[in-house]
Amino acid sequence: MLNRSALLLRYKTPAVKWINDADPAPSGGSVTLEEINSDLTVYLISDEVAESPEEVRRWVKANWCSLFESELEGWYTDPTLWPKRTLKRFDEWFDVECHSMLVDTIGTPIEDDEAED
């Protein structure tokens, strides 16, 4: 097992509406809630954070802006398309899931493929 926990942001309907409305040149189709939530980004957090829902919430309140911006950038890299970011909007757009049991089934070192050598 890894000494980390996993945090996921499960999208809600208002976020999907923004994604579909923000594209200045739609590619012919809208994405659905089910499609978006079928492959989510996993954020690794400390085991201590995952010990209770209160600790998870405290961590989210301290880090919501960077999480929000990471998710927005995954859809549109142009920040002028992004909505105003507030904790209230974050809560309206995402359900937070925390998973404390991570098992490494590969057994080789974990590497950051974007890290500079």
Could you characterize what this model shows?
The protein is globular. The protein is α+β, with helices and mostly antiparallel strands and 117 residues long. It has one domain (4-23, 31-99). It has 4 helices and 3 strands; from the N terminus they run E-H-H-E-H-H-E. The chain has helices spanning 13-22, 33-36, 53-75, 87-93, and strands at 4-11, 42-46, 94-99. Helices cover 38% and strands 16% of the residues. The two termini are 27 Å apart. A 3-stranded antiparallel sheet has the order 2-1-3.
Taking strands numbered 1, 2, ... along the chain, how are they ordered across the largest sheet? 2-1-3
Uncertain runs with pLDDT below 50, 5 residues or more? none
Q: Average pLDDT value?
A: 91
N to C succession of SSEs: EHHEHHE
Characteristic key phrases:
117 residues, alpha+beta, 3-stranded antiparallel sheet, 4 helices, 3 strands, 38% helix, globular
In short:
The chain is of the alpha+beta class and 117 residues long. It is 38% helix and 16% strand. It has one domain.
Question: How do the strands and helices of this protein lay out in sequence?
Answer:
Layout: E1 4-11, H1 13-22, H2 33-36, E2 42-46, H3 53-75, H4 87-93, E3 94-99
Antiparallel strand pairs: 1-2, 1-3
